[in-house]
Specification:
single chain, 196 residues, 5 helices, 85% helix, elongated, transmembrane helix, transmembrane, membrane
């Protein structure tokens, strides 16, 4: 019985969770979403510029080999797919307002997180693979008159870039965004529970 009394006193002595301020939580969530949407916005701007450049190269430079043109088209189409996906995610995040209906916003944020991690996870590998394949095909003609050492160096660089982005950069990028989304969702969940 003495152990039970001790356990009860420890249980009752636990600090109660702080009450969250609705305004503070909504400001923090808006700031976090703004950070993600700004990053997506600048990604869109950069991808539009690079896509326009790739289109100019594709349609205005004459190449002898169809393989080179195919490589550039692969890169161009891959960038257009990535651009479409990024624009879609930007619109999903920027079209809702957390202050209008926080419970609905929480549900949409959870849904966004689930679909983004699922789609972006497998799409990223396809994206990197297609970009690398397109560059490899493009460099066949471009490096035609280069030395063997330069060709090996170029293709090795593409391979190292593929491995670096796939196994080092991707996990860190997505983990960082995932942590931000988890923090915002956690705050909204705590706020929701506070009013139940």
């Amino acid at each position: 019985m003495k152990d039970f009394d001790h356990l009860m006193s420890v249980w009752q002595g636990q600090p109660k969770q702080d009450q969250l301020s609705v305004d503070d939580v909504l400001k923090q969530v808006k700031k976090g979403i703004r950070g993600i949407t700004n990053k997506l916005y600048w990604t869109i701007v950069a991808m539009v510029a690079v896509t326009v450049f790739a289109a100019i190269v594709t349609f205005f430079l004459a190449f002898k080999s169809g393989v080179t043109t195919a490589g550039i088209l692969i890169v161009l189409l891959t960038m257009l797919m990535y651009l479409a996906l990024t624009v879609r995610h930007y619109h999903i995040l920027s079209k809702r307002d957390a202050t209008i209906n926080p419970a609905e916003y929480l549900d949409s944020l959870k849904e966004y997180q689930k679909t983004r991690s699922k789609i972006t996870g497998w799409f990223y590998y396809i994206y990197i693979l297609l970009i690398s394949a397109g560059l490899a095909l493009y460099f066949i003609e471009v490096l035609e008159n280069s030395s063997l050492a330069f060709k090996i160096g170029t293709y090795s660089s593409i391979t190292i870039w593929f491995l670096f982005t796939t196994f080092y950069l991707k996990p860190r990028m997505f983990k960082n965004e995932e942590e931000k989304l988890n923090l915002m969702i956690d705050r909204l969940v705590r706020l929701k529970e506070q009013f139940n």
